[in-house]
């Protein structure tokens, strides 16, 4: 996964925050008097307008990251695959979700973006989180990915031709592997730093989508 995609994904972690802060800045504009709104010298009016634009741009970058990631995920379904039997699966999404959510709520929901001091503090905290996110490849810890259907798992599996040896790997999947309904699954090792797991039904759906695109 290239650095630009990782950065866009790190930005996407805060999508709800951008909506909330943009809403607060827009409210800040409406609470100004008519004279303050149309005065070129009104710092608060210019500040709130510019900051609303900043949140909108960050929101768009985050959406680009999610769409880009989804395309890379689907492309991985078409790569060379390995047939496996899942021995055990542990959903690791929840391990990080509530910690991340608590940090999100406690840190940012009390922020007043109409105050430039709060804005500086917010940007500083976000920058620190994003730096840690990028340095440690923490794209698994993204609640927005989970909300749109991606889950992270730690699975133990055996190969179909060698059931005695057990392998452990951390993967992404859109299926609930803790309740595996079929015996045979596939692993694809993506060039984008993540491995995915899927069954025959998911592979068929991907092929149908690909055929539709080719016909268009």
How would you sum up this structure, described in words?
The chain has 216 residues and is an alpha+beta fold. It is 56% helix and 19% strand. It has 8 helices and 5 strands, in the order ααααβαααββββα. The protein has helices at 3-12, 15-30, 34-37, 43-76, 93-108, 116-135, 143-147, 200-215, and strands at residues 81-91, 151-159, 162-173, 184-189, 195-198. It has a 5-stranded mixed β-barrel. A hairpin with a 5-residue loop joins strand 4 and strand 5 (195-198). Helix 1 (3-12) packs across helix 4 (43-76) and helix 2 packs antiparallel against helix 4. The longest helix has 34 residues, at 43-76. It is elongated and about 75 Å long.
Key words describing this protein structure:
elongated, 216 residues, alpha+beta, 56% helix, five-stranded mixed beta barrel
What percent strand?
A: 15-25%
Q: Looking across the biggest beta sheet, what order are the strands in? A: 1-2-3-5-4
Number of strands: 5
Total of DSSP H or I helical runs spanning 4+ residues: 8
Note the main sheet.
Answer: 5 strands, mixed, barrel
Q: Could you give the topology of this structure?
A:
Elements: H1 3-12, H2 15-30, H3 34-37, H4 43-76, E1 81-91, H5 93-108, H6 116-135, H7 143-147, E2 151-159, E3 162-173, E4 184-189, E5 195-198, H8 200-215
Helix pairs in contact: 1-4, 2-4
Give a quick summary of the entry.
The protein has 216 residues and is α+β, with helices and mostly antiparallel strands.
